[in-house]
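Entry, Tuesday afternoon. Goal for today is a structural model of the target with zinc ion bound, before we commit to ordering more compound. Inputs were pasted exactly as handed over by J.K., no edits. I checked the ligand SMILES twice against the vendor sheet because last time a stereocentre got dropped in transcription.
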Amino acid sequence: MNLIEPIPRPWLSDALAETGFETSGQGKLDIRVTETATGQYLVMGVAKATIQATCVSCLEGFEIPVKAEISVFLCADPKEVPGLSEARDLDVEDLQKEAIHGETLVLDGLVRDAILLDLPMNPRCRPECQAWRDRLPQDDQESIDPRLLPLKKARVAKED
Ligand SMILES: [Zn+2]
């Protein structure tokens, strides 16, 4: 079964609560659910969203296009699948069971985790953004540790 659905903006806002990120609009979920056996499902696809972040360097807002891959095996009771219960830790097991409600799959938790895992720890508007240097106090000859002075001289010589 293919499922292509918008991810509503309020849902994304909830998912991002307290992460420091915000949503710029609705996202899009594009997944394929395959029932591999009774009560066992393979969920594969991608969750896309545009996330509003603040650059850790220049403190400007910028947008991150998120494309989170989803690839999960769900089953009503992981212990019934040989080898699976040992291979998965408890959190994942709980999540997998949580996703199955009778005939209905609730993928909210999976989608949320996939998006959050795709977000950077220290977002930068561009990889080379070095604006944080400009916010440091200006170089003051007096305040520099004397042991570092040779370094400063070397740098000045190089810049000349
Ligand atoms: Zn920046």
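The chain has a mean pLDDT of 81.
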